[in-house]
Automatic annotation (TrEMBL):
Record organism: Roseovarius litoreus
Cell compartment(s), UniProt: Cytoplasm
An MF annotation (GO) of this entry: corrinoid adenosyltransferase activity
Keyword Transport: no
InterPro entries: CblAdoTrfase-like, CblAdoTrfase-like_sf, PduO-typ
Protein name, entry field: Corrinoid adenosyltransferase
Entries under Pfam families matching the protein: Cob_adeno_trans
Length: 190
């Protein structure tokens, strides 16, 4: 359980922060950058949810919760020592990745195949979902970079990869089933 009875601690005043295992690292470390960017995805998702309803909003709420799981996963290095931890560290699972894939497949069945690239935009929800897509791609790139330096849960990387695809397809669905997609016209303004 998390108890936040004090919001500021002053422990980060010199440019360091604590990871989930208690280790202190620079706030600009790649690990902090990766999970901080996952937090940015979650914040942009909060904006998207202002325009979502019904099943779409429920799916976005599940993803927001997953993103906290992902942040918890990324802020806890040294997976090999998970068994020694005082409590079992939270890790993203293959089931979370599979759920995204299933939802992508279900949404995509309702859409016509693409014949052009799509410009971010359309309905307000679609525009915000495209923003979520681009920020999640950045989070994925940073997490992949982190994985070249330190151990990272492979399911965390897969989750981020599927998530940007989920946002893309959900944006199309939110654009009136793709009929309001804004299509790229190559060289239109030459």
């Amino acid at each position: 359980m998390v108890v936040l009875n004090r919001i500021y601690t002053k422990t980060g005043d010199h440019g360091e922060t604590a990871l989930g295992n208690g280790a202190r690292v620079a706030k600009h470390s790649m690990r902090v950058t990766a999970y901080g960017t996952v937090d940015e995805v979650n914040a942009t998702l909060g904006l998207a949810r202002l325009h979502a309803k019904g099943e779409t909003d429920e799916a976005l709420a599940r993803i927001q919760n997953d993103l906290f799981d992902l942040g918890a996963d990324l802020c806890r290095p040294d997976m090999a020592r998970d068994a020694e931890a005082e409590y079992t560290p939270l890790r993203v699972t293959a089931n979370q990745v599979t759920r995204l894939e299933s939802e992508i497949d279900t949404m995509n069945k309702t859409l016509e195949p693409l014949r052009s690239f799509i410009l971010p935009g359309g309905t307000p929800l679609a525009a915000y979902l495209h923003l979520c897509r681009t920020v999640s791609r950045r989070a994925e790139r940073l997490t992949v970079e982190l994985a070249t330096m330190e151990e990272v849960n492979p399911d965390a990387v897969k989750y981020l990869n599927r998530l940007s695809d989920w946002f893309f397809v959900a944006a199309r669905v939110s654009n009136d089933g793709g009929t309001s997609d804004v299509l790229w016209v190559p060289g239109a303004n030459r």
